[in-house]
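User: Here's a chain of 234 residues. Predict its fold as tokens.
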Amino acid sequence: MRTWRVRDVMSTEVATVRPDTPYREIVDLLASRRVAAVPVVDADRRVVGVVSEGDLLHKVELIGEPHEWRIFEGTRRRAARVKADGMVAADLMATPPVTILGNASVVSAARRMSHERVKRLPVIDDLGRLVGIVTRGDLLRVHLRPDDDIRRDVVDEVLRRVLAVEDGTVQVSVSDGVVRLVGGLDRWSAAQLAGRLAAQVSGVVRVDNELTWEFDDSPLATITAGRTTLMGIA
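Assistant: Prediction complete.
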């Protein structure tokens, strides 16, 4: 079953700066490209940091204030003062950079953004070289997939290829990304698996699983899960 990857939604035309790019040039670049942050890359296009508007604003925030450290000053405040004195990207950037590989799933990218509290991720190859950038808006594009495309993936990939369900056994309808499964399968576990797999199809917003089953094997599934946990596998 094909899952959308970061490379499917990322932008490949990325504004970048070098570690020695001056502060004013970075400001001009952000304004002209209408972006809120840029990756900092070395001569081999390896990502070494990211400079955002927040990093640059420390100069505005602390203008006119003395820059010497204070005894009871917090770590963040001290870091802000250091960046306020910075004149090139290497002094201003956030490091280590939070990046993601192009073959990562959009789900992984969304989780990484949430965990790291960032709005965008530089996309790198296996050697750490920049190949693109992905934003929150890019990830949301997965939910713009046409309903017909989603339905085709559920039928072809989930029902036919993975579960080997005969055509006509399960009726699949999709409306605004919401998948509805109606019909009957032989086992409870198969019906549950169909719902879980359908939910993993790119673009699915929700699955309304109305499948019925002939044999309730849920007690067996519970016992198996319990044994797995006791063996330390789960």
